[in-house]
Amino acid sequence: MKLRHWPDLNPDDVPSTWLLAIACLHARPWQPTALAAACQMPRNTVQSLFCAAVASGLALTQEPAVSPTSRRRQPGDSRFFSWVARRFGLNLFQGSTP
Hints:
By secondary structure, the protein is mainly alpha-helical. It has 4 helices and 2 strands. The protein has a two-stranded antiparallel sheet with strand order 1-2. The longest helix is centred in the middle third of the chain and has 14 residues, at 43-56.
């Protein structure tokens, strides 16, 4: 996770030990365990920071890649796309064997 921007913080409301972790999250994406080790903080404290960032909308999380759904090919598909391609002067299946 990474922070979108530096959060609006009141220094009296945030423990000073959290500032390093927040700065690291602002600089680049981190995993909770790695951030806890780098900042010498308990993992549950780092997890609380992550939860607060998500709840406040500050978190930039990397979504897992979604594999394309397998779609059953219908017989008319290639003919339709070939027709559209020819209308624009293209050949979709150059070099392919029939």
